Amino acid sequence: MARGRKRLPAGPHEARIESLSHDGRGVARIAGKVTFIDGALPGELVTFRYTGRRRSRDEGSVLEILQAAPERVAPRCDSFGRCGGCSLQHLDPAAQIEAKQRLLLEQLRRIGAVEAQRLLPPLTGPLWGYRHKARLGARFVKGKGRVLVGFRERHSGYIVDMQRCEILHPAIGGRMTELAELVQSLRICRSVPQLEVAVGDGVAALVFRHLEELDPGDRALLEDFGRRTGLHIYLQPGGPDSVHLLWPERSQLGYRLPEFDLELLFLPTDFTQVNEALNRRMVRQALELLDCGPGQRVLDLFCGIGNFSLPLARMAEEVVGVEGDAALVQRARDNAGRNGLHNVEFHVADLAQEIDCYSWARSGYDRILLDPPRSGALELLPRIAGLRAPKIVYVSCNPATLARDAGELVKVHGYRLAAVGVMDMFPHTAHVESIALFEFRR
Question: What is the mean pLDDT of residues 121-135?
Fold first, then answer.
């Protein structure tokens, strides 16, 4: 045993689970100390073994469920419990939504010290086969004598030995074994660390990251796989700019927003929303909350390829979209032109830095929408609030930073949190996506 490493108490141990943590683990208190237990649900009596001990908390894993919660269900996936792709398949979907909503409201109260005037009904979508974007690991495992392709294991960098994935789009999720066999058949199989998945309307693509040059035989194997399965094959020998199409001769990924008569095209490594069906509902709700119309100017921050900007341009007088990734901005401009929209303009700017130097940041706006990364938008809030837009819609992928930013907008900048709700963009995971409406107090 390494010097300084604490010996874990021999088990099994018994615990009553009180709640669910932000990452989907059961929370118990044992001798006054918080213990996070993988595989346990609130209300359950379980036996577990310790997997780690720290000064502030302990960690464990379920051995046996002595008293099951009524919300416990049988996981669909054979890899559940090992795979890091999902953490809540053992919890009834309705209970998953309740847990995410509870976490969001707790974070708003605890971190932001704010409460919403109105709770929006949760946005939900398909439970299985919903994931249109993913990064899969690939590795030759000497002990197994073969290549594995899949998500990483929980709490480790190992790749799960999985035959199928129930949350990935069926064009990919049903072919995990085939993908592993394909990579293993390549001469450079030990130099293919990653496959990126991108699915659009009617087209599914795979990007093969490779650290060695492909020889003609390897290229032929990948092309044959594409022909046989209909999957479009891209290669990535270097950084993001090195991605290029191998098969077929032409490929066009895109998704439609039928309600707004729009089609948005993207490249397989572009950021797009994971869940296409939920994205359509999210866009509709965001526009309903903004309630914009003719004669109004709208600012869309972190606009990406125009997911919100272009629908907004169907309703508003003028839309300004801002994004830090120049390639995504160009894609947004192309999508605007392709859809015949001339009342929207796009700008490149690092929104984590000072923005007063930009003319668009000194203009007046009637509505503001922002969809920031997990780190939130704290640095932007004084400038956003200074525009005094009557309504701000904030789309969040991290309830903790939303809560922090909500506290700033409400307590410092004169807004009220008019409405908030969860969106189940990632069913069966602990990931919480949410949307909030802020209104300026006149």
Answer: 97
Rounded to two decimals, what is the model's pTM? 0.94
Chain centroid to CA 416 = 27
Q: Reply yes or no on domain 133-199+204-251 having CATH 1.10.10.60.
A: no
Tokens describing residue 375: 């780190």
| 3-state SS, residue 246 | strand
Q: What confidence score (pLDDT) does residue 5 get?
A: 53
Q: Which two tokens stand for residue 436?
A: 């909030």
pLDDT of 2 > 50? The answer is: no
Q: Is 214 helix (H, G, I), strand (E, B) or coil?
A: coil
Task: Give the integer Cα–Cα distance in Å for 166 and 152.
Answer: 15
Specify the pLDDT at position 154: 87
What would the two tokens of residue 58 be?
């302990």
Rounded distance between C-alpha atoms, residue 237 and residue 107, angstroms: 42
DSSP string of 51-94?
EEE-SS-EEEEEEEEEE--TTB---S-TTTTTBTT-S-TTB-HH
Q: Is 397 a catalytic residue?
A: yes
Average pLDDT, the chain: 95
In angstroms, rounded to a whole number, what is the distance separating the alpha carbons of residues 188 and 235? 13
Q: How confident is the model at residue 197 (pLDDT cuts 50, 70, 90)?
A: very high
Give the whole-angstrom CA distance, residue 74 versus residue 21.
20
Fold classification of 98-126+265-440 (topology level):
Rossmann fold (3.40.50)
Topology of domain 13-72, CATH: OB fold (Dihydrolipoamide Acetyltransferase, E2P) (2.40.50)
- Model confidence at 33: pLDDT above 70: yes
Which ranges in the chain are annotated with CATH 3.40.50.150?
98-126+265-440
- Residue pointed to by tokens 């974070």: 107
Q: Give the residue from 337, 330, 329, 289 showing the smallest Cα distance to 313.
A: 337
For the chain, residues classed under CATH 2.40.50.1070 are 133-199+204-251
From the list 77, 165, 303, 397, the catalytic residue is: 397
Question: Residue 107 in contact with residue 124, Cβ under 8 Å?
Answer: no
Structure tokens given for 185:
């058949």
Tokens at 217, concatenated: 């035989």
338 is written with which tokens? 């392709």
